[in-house]
Sequence to fold (222 residues):
Amino acid sequence: MDLDREGPLTKLTNFVYRLIVIEVAFVLVTLPALIGIFFLEQHPSNIPLYAAFALFFGPAISAGVYAWRADQDVVPWLRFWKGWIESFKQTMVVWIPVVGVCALVAFNAAYANVPAAFIIGGIVIAAGAAIYGVALLVIIANFSFRTRDLFAVVMFGTAHAPLAALGIVSLTILAGAVIFFWADWVLVLLASFMLVLLARIVRPMLIQINEGLVKPGQDPLP
Fold:
């Protein structure tokens, strides 16, 4: 008897399978950082170490989005690692400055003797950098733009699909709430689910970029 590949049970099974596989791949690729964060004392003096561990998550986020964007017939395990390897250099180029800005703001907030307004301003800057950093990771996972063009691309995408940018903001707030009200390991367990949400939320932005910036003859958005 032939299986109904379009049936709801098959789709649900496939979704759960992909969810688990991408989760396992995400945990494995970030395992050194997860171990380091687990044993690291939560003290401001360790902010540089937290920043170093945070570098692991940029390529992992991009690879996770890359794995979720694929056709359901593609093996998600292979897709994740393909995305991680191919985009590693470019994701690190954009992720290192983002992590650096956030670490600098956190360090100044902990040690600098400055007015509260400066601290609040720094937090806003760090939040903006993180949001645009995530948007850049998503673009890298879906397109093959030159690194020097990525900032212009993300500005174009967010300007033409502001709801997608707002969705990234909401997802970032949700991630922070999970850490604040529960624990960072809960967010890790939800990583694959958060990645599929991210991939769905930014879809309008990716469509705008595909229609406005991708030249005829280039590979279309999957």
